[in-house]
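Table 4 source record.
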Amino acid sequence: MDVKSFRKAGHTPSLLSAFLYFDVSFMIWVLCGAMALYITKDFGLTDAQKATMVALPSLGGAILRIPMGILADRIGCKKTGIIGMLITIIPLLWGWLGGSNLDQVHAIGLLLGIAGASFGVALPLASRWYPPQYQGIAMGIAGAGNSGTAIATFFGPKIAETYGWHAVFGFAIIPLVLILISFLFMAKDSPNQPAPKKLGDYLSVFRYGDTWWFCLFYALTFGGFSGLANYFSIFFYDIYGDKAMAGGLTKVEVGYLVTITVIAGSFFRPIGGYIADKMGGMKFLQILFACVTVFAFLVTTMPSSFVTMLLYTSVMMACLGMGNGSVFQIVPQRFQSEIGVVTGIVGAAGGFGGFLLPNYILGPLKQATGTHVAGFMTLASIALVVTLVFYAVSRSWRKSWATAESGVNF
């Protein structure tokens, strides 16, 4: 890639603003997952209750992403992002000063969804500044803001160990306010911002079958990434923690382990977008889905070495991260004029995937069987089905809109 031409093609301050906004929002969005071992200890939760607690922010994000995407199209990404960050302060204050019972923790988790809904704002803010040949890398850079998960899983347990888990929510307000200030001065809406439409016009994209296919594929890539990022602290501690075995990992060490897997998924996202720009998003995504399937099956072997398990989970998360970048290399090429609302819809599907994975698969199956094997076997089977479905759907795309004449890099 020619870095100079890439910089000239778009607006670097807005791209950086999109990344920072998404980064701090993602950090806040996964706080319940990062603090899971400390919160669950206070309330003595079952396996299913643990899964529900870490999954609720994903549900909140999924519900709010569509209205945030529509708002970004109507009033602009900059104004919508400012509103989103201001509202996000509310659940952080509640988590810091309240959160004294499980119902409050659930409510805080749902409200943290406003941070997760930043997806429907940050990606259109970046996307509208760049031409089709740079969509993969631009969306990948903005989407790499999911590296905020690594910040939460690395620093969160250490702060909780010293000051208690409530203080983590209070500390999170500091970077949020700093990035809000920088966003005010750096972010700028693209001149390609579409004119406001009627609500029915925005929702008309649901009539397209491609909208639903993108939702399915992103539910696996982003849903898998976010769901596992929230659940991995529980998963690793159950198998390799100091309560599971003599000399096992402490809660802080488990946080480090989760951070490694999250970094793999986050920082490979722009790489996925870059490769998708070069070889075509459809070709690359087909490979990634197959790799996710293989490594999800490998996780079910439950190796005795946490290093081996870390290898399996990190590669799987890296493939999911690159899959996120690849999906959104394709989406803007199919829905350029509706990118705001489609980003919100597809992002919402990813959020629902992140909610369903721990809450309806991993947690309940662990409680029912006493092992994590069944949950990951189910995940691997779903990935296999999606791989086969994507192969069939992408073939039809090549005969319709993703043709050589269209100029789309497929």
